[in-house]
Write a structure and sequence with these properties.
The chain is of the alpha+beta class. It has one domain (6-200): Beta-clip-like, CATH 2.170.270. Helix content is 25%, strand content 19%. The longest helix is centred in the C-terminal third of the chain and has 18 residues, at 139-156. It starts with 5 loop residues before the first strand and ends in a 5-residue tail after the last helix. Bound molecules: zinc ion (ZN). Zinc ion binds at residues 83, 122, 124, 126, 129-130.
């Protein structure tokens, strides 16, 4: 589910549509959260689709850490990639504003943590643009994403979180969403230490 204070807008003729903030949204606000309405496609189901539907599914879905394709049900599926995005991912099921967003600011995310469906040559223009989406993120990228996730999590405990109201028991990462809603500091799994889908989705086994 995408934050209610966002809307779809034509960014430019090259990029096409994207999602922008409709109002001021402070750093630390959850912009998008995977929820129970999002569609989950196993690889076999993708292969059985006609080519046109498969194309649309690959264009608008992302690959979760467990290899399934997730198709967000609202305009969250139209958030564009940037190598210096305005949101930071937590475990691939949560995108959190990593800066204060003003009305009209584009909401972008890093496709390379999750793993995009269609490879692309990035032209986002960021100084640290990784250019070829097929290139594996470097250790420095993983370290930066760990630091950014810890930073946005800390901010998330201090702001209103309308999106979290839609969380359901048992959804991937519920342990993180719950802690965030209760404004409880936790240590997040680490990309650089190779956290698995289970680490992100289910949390430490002793919790
Ligand atoms: Zn880029």
């Amino acid at each position: 589910m995408i934050h209610p204070d966002t809307r779809l807008q034509l960014i430019d003729d090259r990029i096409g549509n994207g999602v922008v903030a409709a109002r001021h949204i402070p750093k630390g606000t959850v912009i998008w959260m995977r929820d129970a309405l999002d569609q989950v496609f196993e690889r076999e189901r993708l292969a059985a689709l006609p080519p046109t539907l498969r194309f649309h599914l690959e264009l608008y879905s992302y690959v979760d850490l467990d290899g399934t394709l997730i198709l967000p049900w609202d305009h969250g599926r139209q958030v564009n990639h940037s190598c210096e995005p305005t949101t930071t991912t937590i475990g691939n099921f949560l995108e959190v504003a990593n800066r204060d967003l003003a009305p009209g600011d584009e909401i972008t995310c890093e496709y390379g943590i999750g793993f995009f469906t269609i490879p692309f040559d990035c032209t986002c223009g960021a100084p640290r643009c990784r250019r070829d989406s097929r290139a594996m993120p470097s250790e420095a990228d993983f370290r930066r994403w760990d630091a950014e996730a810890a930073d946005v999590y800390a901010h998330a405990l201090t702001v209103d979180q309308p999106v979290l109201a839609s969380m359901t028991e048992g959804q991937p990462g519920a342990w993180i969403l719950k802690a965030m809603r209760e404004r409880r500091p936790i240590t997040l799994p680490s990309w650089v230490k190779g956290a698995t889908a289970a680490d992100w989705h289910d949390g430490p086994s002793d919790s």
